[in-house]
Amino acid sequence: MTAPSFAPDAPDAIPLLAVEPEGLDAALDALPPEQAAWARTLGFKAGSGEVALLPGEGGLAHALVGRGKPERRGRERFALAKAVAKLPEGAYRLDGNLPERELREGALGWLLEGYRFARYKDQTPPKARLVAPEGVDAARLETLAAAEWLTRDLINTPSNDMGPAELEAAARQVAEEAGATIRVTVGDDLLAENFPLIHTVGRAAAPHRAPRLIDLIWGGDGPQLTLIGKGVCFDTGGLDIKPSASMLTMKKDMGGAATVLGLAKAIMGLGLPLRLRVLIPAVENAIGSDAFRPGDILRSRKGLTVEVNNTDAEGRLVLADALALAAEGEPGLTVTFATLTGAARVAVGPDLAPFFTDDEDLATALARGGKDWADPVWRLPFHEAYESMIEPGIADLDNAPSGGMAGAITAALFLRRFAPPRYCHFDIFAWSQSNAPGRSKGGLMMGARALLAALPEALGL
């Protein structure tokens, strides 16, 4: 797949004027009279994503794109991307006095709109390309778009072609491109190196889909950032098997791993002055003669025991061992990304990335970063009154408390028992349920741009 990029600047780039309804008459009056008349004939009203193509002597002389009413702009992200498929082939230069955030969002959305998942069927990308608008960091936007394209590709790949071994291969490629080191612990070696929960969850899978822990390290100076992604490459639910309808999107249960690999690609590509560690427990939660069972009590790397009350709550188990490993070193800021609970979707829906942290400054920076970079996030609490809900009495912890209440919070509290002191957890959906501007149906990166924007403040970069 061709990397996302802006068009080279050229004198023949077609002017693309972004217009809002309130300023439409003034914008048309500034055009040559014949072009203004043509726009009025077309009935152009400057609605969100609406396009008017204005001819000139040599062909297309100008294009108008609607911004929509200001009071409705908060309802959709990447509205400019709605116009991309409506424009004929060519390079376009965005005109108009857009606010900085809207200009940046529009340019990034244009790049994201170009994504197509074409591994199994040819897909035609849009042929309209944008010249990088003046005032935006084009290289940064291209890097962010490339990171998201990688994340989407990994999530969209079906599980027969994206098992633990293939996820490892993707991590190795990311490491090789950036000059990072990588170490992978596979199969029974997980037991020898004391990763019992990762081994237990993945041990029922076929030998060629054996569980593993991927450990990538990059950078020699600066503050430490540890990213941990849930890499459940397919989740049957285990012996507590999921209904058929619930399994249809379970190729995305490695969305946390895909997100941290995309984010790592961006961090390394931008050359941020930090030390990065990426940990991915990669498993398949399969059903077999060696599958772990409801009622089993497991001992974790940290030594805490866990009663298994639902084998479909496996993500927190594999993350627990990875978090314990991170806590043994110099973790700095540690962040987990995981498609962990349906409860998070019930709480905030599919469009928000909920996060948990006790770090007030980080929470503020994340909220600001999400707003600035069209990556909406929402803070949920580590509500300590619910700690007793994850304490079954027969073991230290319960992986799936009964009662059906506060599922996202209890899962986050479970992870915090294993985490280093400075910790943030994202419970992401990693999926777009339908085509939207800049977000085609399928795999989706969530929370990563917000975190990237927060890092300078969070780590003192």
Automatic annotation (TrEMBL):
Q: What are the EC numbers? A: 3.4.11.23
**Cytosol aminopeptidase domain location:** 310-317
Q: Which residues form a coiled coil?
A: none
Enumerate the Gene Ontology biological process terms: proteolysis
The record ties this protein, via PROSITE patterns, to: CYTOSOL_AP
* InterPro entries the UniProt entry points to: Leucine_aapep/pepB (IPR011356), Macro_dom-like (IPR043472), Peptidase_M17_C (IPR000819), Peptidase_M17_N_1 (IPR048816)
User: GO CC terms on record?
Assistant: cytoplasm
Keywords of this protein's UniProt record, alphabetized? Answer: Aminopeptidase, Hydrolase, Manganese, Protease
Q: Which GO terms describe its molecular function?
A: manganese ion binding; metalloaminopeptidase activity
Top enzyme class: hydrolase
- One Pfam family matching this protein: Peptidase_M17
PANTHER family xrefs: LEUCINE AMINOPEPTIDASE-RELATED (PTHR11963), PEPTIDASE B (PTHR11963:SF20)
Can you tell me which family this protein belongs to?
A: Belongs to the peptidase M17 family.
By what name is this protein known? Answer: Peptidase B
